[in-house]
Amino acid sequence: MAAVVCSYFVLTAQLPFFATRxxxxxxxxxxxAIPLAxxxxxxxxxxxxxxxxxxxxxxxxxxxxALLNVIVSMSIGLAVWALTATAANPAVGAVxxxxxxxxxxxxxxxxxxxxxxxxxxxxxxxxxxxxLHARMEISRTQAIVGAWLIAAMLFGVVHLPTYNxxxxxxxxxxxxxxxxxxxxYLLTKNIWVSAGAHILNDWMLLGFTLLGPYLxxxxxxx
Length: 222
Known about the structure:
The protein has helices spanning 2-11, 25-42, 56-83, 90-96, 100-135, 140-158, 167-188, 191-221. The protein is globular and about 50 Å long. The longest helix has 36 residues, at 100-135. By secondary structure, the protein is mainly alpha-helical. It has one domain (55-211).
């Protein structure tokens, strides 16, 4: 868990070089590498269990859950927006002003970063599952549900700085999205599948941001 926390602080470190086109890859890669290296050191025989072979069916799960999460996220987001003020994701606003070269690097950087977010969620989930089931002797089903909910809440909490410390938005919208994005892992026990769904989900949402104005103009012109 200490490695997960350390990797998060590396990702969010405000160093000038990390803001450059190539430098942005360093914290994103370390975000993945630090906790996985720690896991490999602690359980050298078992850490690779996170990674299973990706089959055609797994790719279909990625697409399905990415689409499902877009629907769920937008639905929850609109409901929360109607009830209270929400904060925009700075990355979404930044994407709109990027040139084609910067956009390519930005999207490439999101691959390790979003994979790191899967590690950030799944490792605490597994630790909580072990604690609840093996140590506290809670039934496996209840332990899975409890670990699933707590891990999603923790994921929402780490997004508080991004969303201007809006607790409702982070716990309800971001946490709700995380619940959906955990389902591919619960279903397949394969971090590649949940990571793939997460990457596709974010790319679709960012794509809507980029293409939305053009689609609206095209619709108005027709």
